[in-house]
Design brief:
The structure is a homodimer.
Chain A (H helix, E strand, L loop, with lengths): L5 E6 L3 E7 L2 H6 L7 E3 L2 H10 L4 E4 L2 H12 L3 E4 L6 H12 L3 E2 L11 E7 L5 E6 L13 H5 L1 E7 L6 H16 L3 E5 L3 H16 L5 E5 H8 L4 H9 L4 E5 L5 E5 L2 E5 L13 H14 L4 H15 L11 H9 L1
Helix pairs in contact in A: 3-10, 7-8, 8-9, 10-11, 11-12
Chain lengths: 331, 331
Amino acid sequence: MTAPATDVIAIGNAIVDVMAPAQDADIARLGLAKGGMTLVDADRARELYDAMGPAREISGGSAANTLAGLAALGATCGFIGQVAQDQLGEVFAHDIRAGGIAFATPARESEPPTARCLIFVTPDGQRTMNTFLGASQFLPAEALDETVIADAAVLYLEGYLWDPEEPRKAMRRAIAAARTAGRKVAFTLSDAFVIARHGDDFRALIEAGQIDILFANEHELAALTGIADFHEGIASLAAKVPTVVVTRSEQGAHAVSGGEQAHVPAEPIEQVVDTTGAGDLFAAGFLFGHVRGRSLEDCLRLGAICAAEVISHYGARPEADLKALVAARMG
Amino acid sequence: MTAPATDVIAIGNAIVDVMAPAQDADIARLGLAKGGMTLVDADRARELYDAMGPAREISGGSAANTLAGLAALGATCGFIGQVAQDQLGEVFAHDIRAGGIAFATPARESEPPTARCLIFVTPDGQRTMNTFLGASQFLPAEALDETVIADAAVLYLEGYLWDPEEPRKAMRRAIAAARTAGRKVAFTLSDAFVIARHGDDFRALIEAGQIDILFANEHELAALTGIADFHEGIASLAAKVPTVVVTRSEQGAHAVSGGEQAHVPAEPIEQVVDTTGAGDLFAAGFLFGHVRGRSLEDCLRLGAICAAEVISHYGARPEADLKALVAARMG
């Protein structure tokens, strides 16, 4: 096994976020699930966009956000995901490449357009996401270059993308390629709805020892394990997954790895402006520590610092100099 | 003359801003004119976009920004400007309508695409703008509905749009329609390059008494009048223009109207994040005061408050609740 050329290669949705402030009354009036992620079709996306206030567009996508954080920290990264040949696709491709992330998946020629996520941000900083998956959900298995996957220390997979059929096939092939090459597979569960639909797949992957690092929040942990108690839930996974990382918003995060346990509180923050990307950036910090061989507690702290940065402003990609921030906080 | 149904109708460029942080070294390396606005063709726009860091997209356009401020303050507004039938055009149209501004100009079918402005924001908050005018520069005179113009208290014109031929014709027709209806014509000089190219037009309009309210910064004032001394320059214009408003960045703003003079200092602000839209929002506050019959000094203060809000964050459209801000600052 040769040393990997890349730290992390990720497969995820290629999405541009469309973000606007909203009031709780808007969330209720529009029938939105506050704090959640709901898949919407083109008609519903149009309806919600028409109801939205003046917005701004910032590249998003869960795994892509994680890579943006990793690259900002100094990791070498590559992204696999599909946009359409349109202006939002150009925006996504520009932003990911401008962040120093390799991105070679060709843009899809025909309809539907590039994926977008309509995000209503309430005054409490909570984000309510409505995703039109567009071209992203048709990522073909042929878009994978298995030599690229074999050459990355970690393959990172976004649970959201397990839902559509073609990307699921692509991800299964990617897992096989990574394991054959002796690389690690990291997986984020993304959302309870994904577990409701594909929990059996995930449990089977875990039983088969295919997942090396698993990211979840406490709700996803309960949904996956069927265990209400937080610590019992983690313990049940830790028996089968080498590294389990569970975030609990303002209560910090826990990890269990190789018998070792660690916990960090949430980083202090002046004001929560927009929680979009909190979990994605937590994963970025943790994975950066992991590929650099840092202690489990350091990995968690790196995650907490990156998550705190991204929730202090609009948008799910880091704005501050993460390297400098980490140096200042961790010395 | 019946009471106008609309407070302000504006004609301007329909632009989406593409904004990214940059260092002074980037500005130098790319050969950009720091702090200025440079028109670029499609090739140069592509080159600069490729050199730009991860960006965000926020609707812009000088007069459109002014209307966004006016509408946020409670004025009734309409916008005339042209996008293309593409995703950025949809973004622009959504954002202006979502701000409560009437916008009925049809999107142009063929190439070029919707205008965009590539904005490099340096750590001092200064913005360096590179504008690809796209569909905006082909606004046809037929896009004007003269009854709409006749029904607005103020017609507001963006100097930038005087440069391309078709919109210039449209604006001349609009001025005639407004004057015939007994309405006021407000004009912003926009940039010294516009005066270098069209100063004779502007001086002729002023001599002919076609401009009721003129907005300029101190550099534009000097370029237009050929007078180096600030106060002499204002006096020379005030003899021919009923209301002259001149901004001086952190030194505040001056106005002369009907023999009366007023001055306000710049509003205090914690940190200048991005100066994009400062002049546009100053005009918004001033015009709001004007159409509401406020004193000259109040008009200037309203301008200073709105300008201070927009330079405290990324993007040239207001984010804070301007009504509440004005109420808090002016009582």
